[in-house]
Description:
There is one protein chain. By secondary structure, the protein is mainly beta. It is 10% helix and 48% strand. The protein contains two helices and twelve strands; from the N terminus they run αββββββββββαββ. The protein has helices at residues 6-12, 138-147; strands at residues 26-33, 38-45, 48-55, 62-67, 72-74, 82-91, 94-103, 112-119, 122-128, 135-136, 150-153, 156-159. The strands form three sheets. Strands 4-3-2-1-10 form a five-stranded antiparallel sheet. Strands 5-6-7-8-9 form a five-stranded antiparallel sheet, covered by helices on one side. A two-stranded antiparallel sheet has the order 11-12. A hairpin with a 7-residue loop joins β5 and β6. The radius of gyration is 16 Å and the shape is globular. The N and C termini lie far apart (54 Å).
Amino acid sequence: MQRLAPFAALALLAGPAAAECITRAESFMMCTMKGGAKELRGCWGPGDAGYQFGPEGGAPELVISVPLAQLDFIPWAGVGSSIWEEVNFANADVQYSIWHRVDRAPEGDPPSAGVTVTRGDETLAELTCDPGTISANFEGLYQAKAAIGQCWRDFSWQTCKSP
Length: 163
């Protein structure tokens, strides 16, 4: 099977455009890639969350939007030497996994982030953010999920019980 160049894989797999991150109230992840040529944004707003990828400052090549209640967000488990979180967006049979990692030790590695694009077990693209361009607020996304009545229990989001 022919492998696509990472940016070509992202562009060719784009579906119909949905609401853009620039209209969202909050971003949980932003960075540039390939020396600022591309920009990744993950965001949430009233009732939904979005993923946007494309030229920095230009019209996005790919936009995916899902209801916040259905968002596949894996928060940090609270253990280990690094804080690691992931948000997954599906576009037909292709998954876009936005991830972020911060080493908890002061002498550890610098923060890293990116997006991994997969179809089934096949990795179509793995892109990492340019160093120094990462802005992440996954805690805000966690709070947004809690604000709509969801709790992270037993490694899944569940509807919270009323007090």
